[in-house]
Amino acid sequence: MQHGRCPKPLKNRDVITLRSWLPMGSDYIIMNYSVKHPKYPPRKDMVRAVSIQTGYLVEGKGAQSCCITYLAQVDPRGSLPKWVVNKSSQLLAPKAMKRMYKACLKYPAWKQKHNPHLKPWLFPEQSTLPPVALSELSIQHAASLENIDESGLAEGKEERAEGSDDDSGN
Q1: What's phi and psi for 121, nearest 5 deg?
Q2: Could you read off the pLDDT of 27-66 as tens digits, one per residue?
Q3: Distance of alpha carbon 154 from alpha carbon 157, whole angstroms
Q4: 154: helix, strand or coil
């Protein structure tokens, strides 16, 4: 489960996704899509977003380099004004890539100090996550979720959305 903080007066979002990895030599495809899980029903204090298809293509470019392509087809749900959705899409994906880039630069040193031989993405037998029976899951379609009305937002609040998530600490 992932949670997303939204600037006021928007409601926060959450999403339940199933992630799949496909190693292809030095490349990886990592894809997610929304699922329903009986242990995690929609919460009253959040809007359940839907990941129609989200993921990464990670192309190895040698021992110390890669190229990442990011795809995000997401329905944030609620009844957000189009200007909010459009502005968010222009800000969130580039910000996520910038954070990933910064994390990647620090990862080798961090990994040396934190279980350097634990790599469950390469060795699934190392995973400590509890198994999930696929029979408990079903695809989460946006149409099956309650539509939360957030259309009362004024377009003047746009500036607040831009500065709401401080990036200075990264």
Answers
A1: -70, -25
A2: 999 999 999 998 888 888 888 999 999 999 999 998 888 9
A3: 6
A4: coil
